[in-house]
Write the structure tokens for this entry.
Amino acid sequence: MSLRKSPLHEEHLRLGGRMIPFGDWELPVQFAGIIEEHLTVRKAAGLFDVSHMGEIVCQGPGALAALNGLLTNDLGKLEDGQAQYNALLRPHGGIVDDLVVYRRSAQDWLLVVNAANKDKDLAWVQEQIGAACQVEDWSDRYAQLALQGPSSQAILATLTDLDLPAIGTYRFAMGRVAGHEALVSRTGYTGEDGFELYLAPTAAVPVWQALLEAGAPHGLVPVGLGARDSLRLEMKFALYGNDIDETTHPLEAGLGWIVKLKKGDFVGRDALLQVQQEGLKRRLVGLEVTGRGIARHGAAVHAHGRQVGTVTSGTHAPSLGKPIAMAYVEEGLHLVGTPLGIDVRGRLIDAIVVPTPFYKRPER
């Protein structure tokens, strides 16, 4: 099966992007280099092509009630023009996907889901609430760009008449960017200030080019998947398939803040109430690796002479200059300051549980 290509595929090749398979897609892992791109996002700005993400639209008079009975967070608290981080669960509490939900109106909702989960998510949403509202896959109608970093607003302001300061965190507005209609949201996956732009696929190339040109004086660079991963890990943002999946539930994953058990019934609520009553058996924690080595996904975590957990994500953190990781560890070993060992190619290296996020954005 041939890999899918973003509307920006030729642009990536022209800019020297190193292309790799990513699920069903062919996408750039880096341009100038992962560390350089990572640090540029932290200090100036980076432009990401995230057109592989999936978009599902739920519309109709019953959409709000139906979605609120399906998702963990409370959609009833949203106004038009607000977005919300959320989770979609199975009845046993396992995470089908984590996603961002946009309220365009009480009868019009946009769900932005992980690319690899789109078909699974669509089938689950249709099965659960398809009788109450219209559920459609709109993924082919959108390209998505992410402009991230402290210079993002200054760059975007040169290409749009939108009042960008008025678009608060997890809010969005419709407007024109470089002459093309776009949904512009103040969201992202890096921990920096920034925007995500949802555009028609035909607008992707001209808007991408316009942003790079406008951003050049500000130090804007194109950024690949490699830096996207290290940036999100420094923030302890979960990556589906690594840190969360259908075998994990949001309470142990540190996502209890997006679970509103008091809002009323939703799919998976009973299972989470049981977990809450029985107590957690493990937790997802942040680790600083103090020994020599990098902890990678799947590495065993040890304490007291036995395995007590598993690493879900790990890398060298460019912003911090040291290796970090995330891991599920047994309850009681999750406390900050707990020393642990990580099996790296048959050798135990030292690590310690640390507060998260690992990286905190400086006041600017």
